[in-house]
Design a protein that fits this description.
Layout: E1 2-15, E2 19-25, E3 30-35, E4 54-61, E5 67-76, H1 85-99, H2 104-119, H3 124-138, E6 157-161, E7 166-169, H4 179-188, H5 205-221, H6 228-237
Parallel strand pairs: 3-5
Antiparallel strand pairs: 1-2, 1-4, 2-3, 4-5, 6-7
Helix pairs in contact: 1-2, 1-3, 1-6, 2-3, 3-5
Bound molecules: zinc ion.
Length: 239
């Protein structure tokens, strides 16, 4: 039986001497395909196994029930990814998250929108922040930066607290932070994949928010970020 579908190479795993097992992200599921011989230098199907490339895959179903790659066409390779270590690590973290996610439709939205922003050369740190905010929203961990988390007041906001989950007003907190920091927090925590290309400034607070969001997602949503320490070291270096 032959089948044909389009999708993104999300992960490759070595198998035997010359084979790869591909995890392919399609609109509604993640498909596992055995790609025989694709580790050989002269393999004609090698271009269908590059991580994050978008391809049309032709597969056959074996007697044992698994899918084997029989052909296909490379449709798009996100060449701009290689320009930035932040982008490489961001896609590594994102694909790891999607592989552990039950809802492929949300994963497909995250992945395709992120790749589009990368191709449009949006700021890598803002794409990363947008992804983290999207994941936080999906996991029910959004910080409230519209009102005081304790009393609901929209007036006299004086403090932002990661531990409290957002803004506090002057009646509910003894801490006071400057207005510029508070307005930056509001902007940064509202960045998502549909608005992040409209923001052009990255402030010093961006790194702090990225790090604290990763910590919050690990501690409170149990998400494990692979390549986390390398990503954190990289965002401190790259502007
Ligand atoms: Zn309050």
């Amino acid at each position: 039986m032959n089948d044909c579908f389009r999708g993104y190479v999300l992960r490759t795993v070595d198998y035997k001497d010359n084979d790869l097992i591909l995890s392919i992200l399609t609109e509604d599921e993640i498909v596992t395909v055995l790609a025989r011989g694709t580790k050989k230098i002269n393999s004609k199907r090698k271009s269908l196994t590059h991580p994050y490339s978008y391809c049309e895959f032709e597969v056959t179903k074996s007697k044992g029930g698994h899918l084997a790659l029989s052909g296909g066409v490379l449709l798009n390779y996100p060449s701009k990814v290689e320009k930035s270590l932040t982008l490489i690590l961001l896609l590594s973290i994102l694909s790891h998250y999607i592989l552990n996610l039950n809802e492929t439709i949300f994963g497909y939205y995250l992945f395709t929108t992120s790749l589009k922003l990368i191709e449009e050369e949006a700021n890598p740190k803002l794409i990363l922040l947008a992804i983290l905010n999207e994941i936080a929203g999906h996991e029910g961990l959004m910080f409230n930066v519209d009102e005081c988390v304790k009393c609901g007041s929209k007036k006299s906001i004086v403090h932002f607290s990661y531990d409290e989950g957002g803004f506090c007003c002057k009646n509910c907190s003894n801490h006071h932070q400057n207005k510029e920091y508070l307005s930056q927090m509001r902007i940064l925590l509202k960045i998502n994949l549909s608005n992040c290309d409209k923001i052009d400034t990255v402030t010093g607070t961006t790194n702090e928010v990225i790090i604290r969001l990763i910590e919050a997602l690990e501690d409170r949503a149990g998400i494990k970020f692979n390549a986390k320490s390398m990503l954190l070291a990289t965002i401190n270096k790259e502007d």
